[in-house]
UniProtKB/TrEMBL annotation, chain B:
It is a multi-pass membrane protein. PANTHER family: ABC TRANSPORTER PERMEASE PROTEIN MG189-RELATED-RELATED, POLYGALACTURONAN_RHAMNOGALACTURONAN TRANSPORT SYSTEM PERMEASE PROTEIN YTCP. Signal peptide: none annotated. InterPro entries: MetI-like (IPR000515), MetI-like_sf (IPR035906). This is Carbohydrate ABC transporter permease. It is found in: Cell membrane. The chain crosses the membrane at residues 21-44, 83-102, 114-136, 148-166, 187-209, 263-283.
């Protein structure tokens, strides 16, 4: 009895303390946190309530709440549709092949950059390889279309006249290669920075010990960036389902749709162009649930491999 | 100790490094060649470009394409819209984000756990396209700049970056301000902001580039052509192959038209990409430090 009472008192006290803290530091709540909090509630949490649409037959007159329930009808519909399976596979293929081809490039690039001893030279190269990151998706895809056009430079070079943009079989290669061209330099920054910070003394020690370049990379450089590699891998693999809309849509043509229709573009066309709100929301919801499951699985797997260190 | 020069290395090391440098040179080449190609092509006569390909024969260079692009009204409308949207988005976003990051960086901040969970959830789960679209239209934001500015203004990821940065600032600073009787707000504006320039620069660059280069939100929320940002104007020229009519209205033959449309693409790319490509080197000194913060904390 007695200990219960004192527990309650401590709890009371700590509530009082917290109340006092809030009172004293009201500015932190009203000025500092409130804008971010409001934006989050309005633009992130209100739409989350909107996922109810996935189970309703939406009518603009009745609103989301008033519309009639249809249960799992939409889920049944798309899970049994071969088209949907195609788009799901397209999404996964783009991101997993992209990961397989694209993930090592910035790491290799950073390891190479780290071997350049002249700072001025290194800075210049960095400046160049970062540049594509600042080009917009539209311009990138515009360039891709110019270079790959039947009369474009690539065909001139090969002496052919393929229309790459209309070939479903070419879509993924185009998507992934242009992604590496644009993003690899920028993605290498954090590896480069980690290498520059961590390995100077260790490398010198290794050099004194007579380690050759290969051994230096294996024993000094790679361990220095290992944790970043792990984090980046989790993030990218976990995001396998959220392939961005913008680039896929800008590289899409009527002819390559077989490979280029991914879930994001499908949801857009279905929902906003065809007005099929419920169905489109159901597909979107399904997409983000798979995404979360993926993230959890990848995190677990990596944690197991990486001595219990996940995200 | 001085590092050994290239010639002092063993043969196998030299070979390995040599291969490495060649790889690096190839990579740099792959980045540069398309960029140079676009710039050179933008100055060329369309007929010469079509028939003979790229050439560095300056005597045939013309500024025709640039004249047509620069005198086009839609490009300029797009430019000014993009500048307005990107600047306001950057200002609002960075302000809201670092304001929230400051309390979150304090060890004793009551409610930290609560806010943390509220924010982190939104990184992994969202309502999706249609619910967000319905909300924006219910709020009457369609066809207003707010539709592209507000929804993404608070970035949790950027908040984490800024919070990590704040945590690296010694707490004695706050104690000193308290002794002077400064409120949190006064302390934040007068003491903290000046020492946070690197992280502010990085976040501002992220947000500005992000808004400048995106088109999806504008495509679905801004239907009025006078409100379109640059990227949507570019989209009709580069992706949909429909140059703005003002650019080509005086050309009669279809063949001429097709050639000119191609040429206009190059100059449009150059004109639209130049501002950011000129701007980012000035931020380079902040890249490493700013991005490191993110990678360490994850």
């Amino acid at each position: 009895m007695k200990s219960n009472a004192s527990d309650a008192m401590i709890k009371n006290n700590s509530w009082k303390k917290k109340g006092k803290y809030i009172q004293k530091n009201w500015q932190l709540y009203i000025i500092f946190m409130l804008p971010a909090f409001l934006l989050t509630v309005i633009f992130k949490y209100l739409p989350m309530g909107g996922v109810l649409l996935a189970f309703k037959d939406y009518s603009a007159m009745k609103g989301i709440i008033g519309s009639e329930w249809v249960g799992g009808k939409y889920f049944q519909r798309f899970l049994s549709s071969p088209d949907f399976m195609n788009y799901l596979l397209n999404t996964l293929k783009v991101s997993l092949y992209g990961l397989a081809w694209g993930f090592p490039v910035p790491i290799i690039l950073a390891l190479l950059l780290n071997r350049i001893k002249r700072t001025g030279m290194k800075k210049k190269i960095q400046l160049i390889v970062y540049a594509p990151n600042f080009i917009s998706v539209i311009v990138l895809c515009g360039m891709v279309r110019i270079f790959l056009s039947p009369v474009g430079p690539l065909n001139n070079l090969l002496g052919t006249s393929y229309n790459f943009m209309t070939m479903p079989s070419a879509f993924r290669s185009i998507y992934i290669a242009s992604g590496i061209w644009q993003g690899a330099g920028w993605a290498s920054i954090m590896y480069t920075a980690a290498l520059a910070n961590a390995s100077k003394e260790l490398t010198e020690a290794a050099v004194i010990d007579g380690a050759n370049v290969f051994q230096q990379i294996k024993n000094v450089d790679l361990p220095a960036i290992k944790s970043i590699i792990v984090i980046q891998f989790i993030l990218q693999a976990g995001n396998a389902m959220s392939v961005g809309f913008e680039k896929a849509y800008a590289l899409q043509t009527d002819m390559n749709i077989e490979a280029s229709e991914i879930l994001a573009t499908y949801v857009y066309k279905l929902g906003l162009l065809n007005g099929d709100y419920g169905f489109s929301t159901a597909v979107g919801l399904f997409n983000s649930i798979i995404n979360i499951v993926l993230l959890i699985i990848v995190n677990k797997v990596v944690a197991k491999i990486n001595d219990g260190q996940g995200l | 100790m001085k590092t050994r020069t290239f010639n002092q290395l063993s043969f196998s090391d030299r070979t390995l490094l040599g291969i490495g440098y060649i790889l690096l040179a190839i990579f740099v080449g792959i980045i540069i060649v398309p960029l140079v190609y676009v710039v050179v092509a933008s100055f060329m006569d369309p007929t010469v470009l079509q028939n003979e390909g790229i050439s560095f024969d300056f005597s045939t260079w013309t500024l025709t394409a640039y004249e047509r692009v620069m005198t086009n009204k839609m490009i300029w409308v797009g430019f000014s819209n993009s500048i307005i949207y990107s600047m306001s988005y950057t200002f609002i976003s960075v302000l809201v984000t670092i304001m929230a990051a400051y309390p979150m960086s304090k060890k004793d901040f009551v409610g930290k756990g609560f806010f943390n969970i509220i924010f982190i959830i939104t990184m992994f789960f969202g309502g999706g396209l249609i619910p967000t679209y319905l909300l924006i239209s219910d709020l009457q934001l369609v066809n207003t700049p707010w539709a592209v500015i507000l929804p993404g203004a608070f970035s949790v990821w950027n908040m984490i970056l800024a919070r990590t940065y704040f945590q690296s600032i010694p707490e004695e600073l706050r104690e000193a301000s308290s002794m002077d009787g400064a409120s949190e707000l006064v302390h934040f504006v007068n003491v903290l902001l000046p020492v946070c320039k690197p992280i502010i620069a990085v976040l501002a660059l992220y947000q500005f580039v992000g808004m400048w280069n995106s088109y999806f939100d504008a495509m679905i929320y801004l239907n009025d052509s006078k409100m379109q940002p640059l990227q949507l104007v570019l989209r009709s020229i580069l992706i949909q192959n429909t140059p703005e009519t003002g650019m080509i209205s005086d050309i009669q033959s279809t063949a001429e038209l097709a050639k000119l449309a191609e040429l206009l693409k190059y100059s449009t790319i150059v004109v639209s990409s130049l501002p950011l490509l000129i701007m980012y080197p000035f931020f380079q000194k902040y890249f490493d430090s700013g991005i490191m913060i993110g990678s360490v904390k994850g």
